[in-house]
Amino acid sequence: MESVAVGTAPADGAPAEGVSKAQLAYAFVRERIENGTYSPGFRLVLGQLARELGVSPVPVREAIRMLEAEGLVTYERNVGAQVALPDPGLYAHTMDTLGVVEGYATASAVHTLTPQRLAESRAISAQLRSTLDAFDPVTFTRLNQAFHESLYRDCPNPHMLDLVERGWRRLQAMRSSTFDFVPGRAAESVAEHEALLDLIERGADLPEIETAARNHRHNTMRAYLALHRASAPQPTETTAAADVGTPTAGTPPSTEPREGNHA
């Protein structure tokens, strides 16, 4: 694997000594997928990326394979590599799981929250509300993640924290922002954040806090899936008759989140 010496990276940031060209290309493309520069369906042309990075196509090809293994990129014959399109089924399963583990982590961290940390969370929530008039889904999502992290990051269970962070990374791999697809959900999300903070500040029972945090995540999932179903092409009567008993392509499996305490 080729390595990059200090100072040979593109202008937007030199790598640490010994970082391989493939790792540099991987970080370069992944950052642009996560910040929305490369949106779902964006074609990744190896030669163009290699020129931008000042490397040969070989490490770029290796980086694309790494991103493909993570689900960030897909490759099709005669089309090439492109940023993966959101998969509603995978999104639903990821959000369902994240709701469970993040709800638990948030409730578990409550006893570690200081007045300063709660003030930080309130300030982020206020920033989120201030973005609603001139809405930018990418900025909103960045602040949204910061808000949730401020509540769960001191969870005493490191394995649970790892599961939460994996869930967030999977979401980032699928889309830059749910709120880009369901902008009307943003105001509801802010109200739920404020309600969650109210529960924590008044000393509500941990199961109540966990349920509120979990339901908040699942409400976003339901809003996205409802929009997906509404925008999906409806089969004709002939097609519907022919396909009785066969799920429509692209329709996610039943993903209604389970009710009750998942602690």
From TrEMBL:
MF terms from GO for this chain are: DNA-binding transcription factor activity; sequence-specific DNA binding
Q: Where is this region: Disordered?
A: 232-263
A Pfam family this protein belongs to? GntR
- Ranges for domain HTH gntR-type come to 19-86
Q: Tell whether Methyltransferase is among the UniProt keywords.
A: no
Q: Which SUPFAM superfamilies match?
A: GntR ligand-binding domain-like, Winged helix' DNA-binding domain
Q: Which domain of life is it from?
A: Bacteria
Q: Which UniProt keywords apply?
A: DNA-binding, Transcription, Transcription regulation
Q: Where is the signal peptide?
A: none
Entry's InterPro entries? AsnC-type_HTH_dom, GntR_C, TF_FadR/GntR_C, Tscrpt_reg_HTH_GntR, WH-like_DNA-bd_sf, WH_DNA-bd_sf
Full protein name: GntR family transcriptional regulator
